[in-house]
């Protein structure tokens, strides 16, 4: 940011989501002149359509599900019910409470100039937004990912749902077909199945959640099928969709056979990075997988950075925020900061039970031909399982042959909290012995982490 007098801004950030807003706020707080351009809703996906609304509705669904299944604890549920419009109102309240949802002022109060509109590069240092021309020394492309029209035969003939719309449907659908089985798909599956929807989840791969440990896929396919009646269709390819009554007829192939089901709603979750902003004019290379960046998040144009879902549509919010911080640090420190190679960033699926993982999975170790040790402790082995009557879940730890911790996968009611202990251990290069030596409070789920670490010592 050396030639700042020549340009309107030191930094223009395109996209106000987790990645863009993190960078814009940090750089503006350091006294630099920053503009933030947003084509949609300020705050981006996480507070408006993604993380916040889904977790608010999941919370309501989990309460409902637990109360309904609480008879064995003496909880009567014969009068139990739910009101979907009230749940939707609760979701809106949670969105508002996030502070950053649809809140342009949040950024202007921090001294950032905000622009509402689609940014488009005209030259390497100049963009247009609603016919306004803005120039900057540096740019951060944080345009996120979009739900493009799915490439399915007949898609033009039907009305379909995406995460932008599904939680605003007037009533809970009787039947729902979810295409894909990533974490968000399973969260929606749990919400709707808990409220009584017959849910189908289709997945091209041989198992659901292909990027997670295979023991998670096995457990969920069995547990969700048994408790919520979710129908998992693995090795399934959509053949086409067509309108049928008020709903949709979905045809799909599984192996050699083609089948069809009729559903009220179909939900598509596939996203692709947003790259249609004249990047060619700034000499920035990109592919359908996203904007090309190096280890410092620099694009093929040295003064343009990119991060978040614009470089990887599967990126989580914490990774998008990390990208924002890296870009800000590089610009402020004037020396490039690198994206950590193997940053043990925890991933969480906010279902009930929750899934969390950090570091390597069994599959990763196999692919890298690593020689490892593994321990698996079923939750039923800890005292907490007795008093909660919950035995679904496990803690799985992986270490190298010397005991250095490499990864963990946890399925437990509090897995999203428990994982951070192991994440810290991985960050600090701790061993199974270190973790096993640490006293864990009696009657917590985390005792399973200590037990799994102790098991690795045998
Ligand atoms: C249903 C759902 C649930 C999720 N839950 C979680 C979760 O629990 N935890 C988690 O870690 N992650 C979760 N995610 C993922 C998370 O939401 C994303 O990883 C994160 O929001 C990406 O942030 P971003 O800043 O890269 O992009 P975004 O938040 O998408 O921001 C990009 C912004 O750029 C704007 N934009 C695009 N093009 C232009 C242009 N030309 N000019 C100006 N502005 C433009 C867009 O309008 C958008 O607001 C979830 C995602 C979904 C869909």
How far apart the termini lie comes to 55 Å
Class from secondary-structure proportions: alpha/beta
Number of strands: 23
Q: What ligands are attached or bound here?
A: flavin-adenine dinucleotide
Percent of residues in beta strands?
25-35%
Low-confidence spans: none
What is Rg?
A: 24 Å
Taking all residues together, what is the mean pLDDT? 94
Residues in helices, as a percent range: 25-40%
Number of helices: 13
Largest sheet: 7 strands, mixed
Shape: globular
Fold and architecture overview:
By secondary structure, this protein is α/β, with parallel strands linked by helices. Helices cover 30% and strands 26% of the residues. It has helices at residues 18-29, 45-48, 51-68, 84-97, 105-108, 183-194, 214-228, 317-333, 362-367, 383-388, 415-427, 432-437, 447-456, and strands at 9-14, 34-38, 113-116, 119-123, 126-129, 132-141, 145-146, 175-179, 198-202, 231-233, 236-244, 247-254, 257-263, 265-268, 272-273, 286-287, 290-291, 304-306, 347-349, 354-359, 372-378, 394-400, 405-412. Strands 1, 2, 3, 4, 5, 6 and 18 form a 7-stranded mixed beta sheet that branches. Strands 19-20-23-22-21 form a 5-stranded antiparallel beta sheet. Strand 5 (126-129) and strand 6 (132-141) form a beta hairpin. Helix 1 packs parallel to helix 8 (317-333) and helix 3 crosses helix 4. It is globular. The protein starts with 8 loop residues before the first strand and ends with a helix. The mean pLDDT is 94. The structure holds flavin-adenine dinucleotide (FAD). Residues 14-20, 37-40, 44-46, 50-51, 54, 118-119, 142-144, 163, 184, 274, 277, 308-310, 315-318, 320, 350 line the site of flavin-adenine dinucleotide.
């Amino acid at each position: 940011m050396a030639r700042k007098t020549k340009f309107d801004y030191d930094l223009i950030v395109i996209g106000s989501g987790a990645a863009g807003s993190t960078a814009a706020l940090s750089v503006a707080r350091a006294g630099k002149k920053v503009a933030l351009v947003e084509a949609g809703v300020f705050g981006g996906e996480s507070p408006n359509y993604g993380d916040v609304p889904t977790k608010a509705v999941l919370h309501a669904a989990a309460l409902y599900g637990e109360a309904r299944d609480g008879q064995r604890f003496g909880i009567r549920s014969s009068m139990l019910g739910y009101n979907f419009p009230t749940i939707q109102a609760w979701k809106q309240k949670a969105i508002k409470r996030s502070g950053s949802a649809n809140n342009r002022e949040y950024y202007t109060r921090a001294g950032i100039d905000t622009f509402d509109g689609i940014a488009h590069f005209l030259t390497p240092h100049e963009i247009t937004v609603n016919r306004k021309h803005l120039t900057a020394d540096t740019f951060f492309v944080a345009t996120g990912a979009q739900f493009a029209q799915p490439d399915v035969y007949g898609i033009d003939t039907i009305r379909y749902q995406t995460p932008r719309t599904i939680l605003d449907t007037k009533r809970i659908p009787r039947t729902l077909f979810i295409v894909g089985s990533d974490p968000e798909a399973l969260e929606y599956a749990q919400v709707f199945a808990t409220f009584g929807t017959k849910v189908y989840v289709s997945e091209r791969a041989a198992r659901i959640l292909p990027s997670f440990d295979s023991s998670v896929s096995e457990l969920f396919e069995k547990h969700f099928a048994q408790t919520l009646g979710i129908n998992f269709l693995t090795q399934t390819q959509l053949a086409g969709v067509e309108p049928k009554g008020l709903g949709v007829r979905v045809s799909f192939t599984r192996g050699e056979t083609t089948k069809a089901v009729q559903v009220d709603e179909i939900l598509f979750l596939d996203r692709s990075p947003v790259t249609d902003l004249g990047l060619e004019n700034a000499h920035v290379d990109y592919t359908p997988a996203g904007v090309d960046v190096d280890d410092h998040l620099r694009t093929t144009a040295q003064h343009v950075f990119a991060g978040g879902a614009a470089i990887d549509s599967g990126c989580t919010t914490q990774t998008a925020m990390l990208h924002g911080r890296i870009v800000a640090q590089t610009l402020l420190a004037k020396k490039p900061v690198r994206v950590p190679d193997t940053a043990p960033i925890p991933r969480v699926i906010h279902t009930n039970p929750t899934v969390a993982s950090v570091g390597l999975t069994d599959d990763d170790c196999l692919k890298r031909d690593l020689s490892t040790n593994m321990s698996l402790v079923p939750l039923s082995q800890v005292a907490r399982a007795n008093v909660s009557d919950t035995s679904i879940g496990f803690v799985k730890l992986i270490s190298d042959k010397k005991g250095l911790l490499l990864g963990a996968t946890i399925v437990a009611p509090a897995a999203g909290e428990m994982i951070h202990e192991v994440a810290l251990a991985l960050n600090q290069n701790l061993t199974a012995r270190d973790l096993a030596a640490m006293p864990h409070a009696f009657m917590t789920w985390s005792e399973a982490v200590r037990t799994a670490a102790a098991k690795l010592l045998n």
